[in-house]
Amino acid sequence: MTDQSSFGVFEQVASIITKSKLPVVCGHIMPDGDCISSVLSLSLGLWKLGIQAVPTIDWPIPSGFEGFPYVQDISDFSQDVSQTDLLICVDSSTKDRLGRFEILIDKGLPSVVIDHHTTNTMFGEVNWVAPEFSSTAQMILRLLNFMKVGYDKELALLNYLGIATDTGFFRYSTVDETVFSDVAELVRLGADPAFVARQVLERDRVEHLYLKRDAINNLELHQSGLVAVSYLRNDSFVRYGIREDEFSGFVNDLRAIDTVEVAVFVSEDDKGNAHFSLRSKTFFDVSRVAQDFGGGGHKNAAGFTHTCSEGFHKALEELLQVIKEQLQS
Ligand code: AMP
Ligand code: MN
Ligand code: MN
Questions:
Q1: Of the chain's two ends, which shows fewer C-beta atoms within 10 Å, N or C?
Q2: How confident is the model at residue 302 (pLDDT cuts 50, 70, 90)?
Q3: Is 18:49 a contact under the CB 8 Å cutoff?
């Protein structure tokens, strides 16, 4: 199912969801704006249809999103989900991205996957995977429109959040005419773009800048400036009291260097796991590299997580070698 205008897809997904009594709407671990937006917009939309959807993400919500409505209603796996009859997975390319909710897939609970990642493994019973969409939030808007959900200001705001953040605030190559017409509709319905930009982009603590200073100290250029790499070990995050998943923007600073095609930023959590964020500017497909290391994503933005407390620099070297080979092929 990849045709974004196909009526059949909407009908199939909508009919499964409306038959459900208690669907769990589940986003991915290390949630970003698109994930939070998709979970909450779909849940709110279903509440408006009288369906008792449960919004879930099995990970702490980064503090930058606390100013958005209903964020405190998102629960992790400690919520009792024994009565649920459907798992709706949003913005998640593989089942391990669901955290502990993965077990519901393994147990054979009916499931619907709604996602825009090219690397999606189609792990649901029904899979609506459409990489032509800028964001999963844009897919949710289309689905809720098909289901004739009436939008209020809060739903419009939450739905706008994911489209804005996953397009880098309307800058990436995924931005086409449909993005602008869809967000125009959401702004008409009450979404406030300036509020979203302020919440997401202008609420850093000064410690975020101190972390950037450390990351700049670790910056290296490779392949005549085509590849930029930096990292932060866990001690930096501990020093400044910021969780590693709350510091996500630096890889974009690396990509912004004019000679750079591929940017890599690695952050280490308190268990020694290293999260690799990959970005490319134009031609290089970072999702293929991320997949080689067990992750996934899109052509210009991808990632993976590596358990490598003793081999942090070894993993980075292996990755750089793969990037070098692909640049030369
Ligand atoms: P990030 O660098 O964490 O912002 O992620 C960039 C893109 O890669 C997003 O679309 C993520 O969904 C995807 N991604 C990041 N980490 C993983 C992972 N461990 N497995 C699959 N996809 C990932
Ligand atoms: Mn996401
Ligand atoms: Mn997304």
A1: C
A2: very high
A3: yes
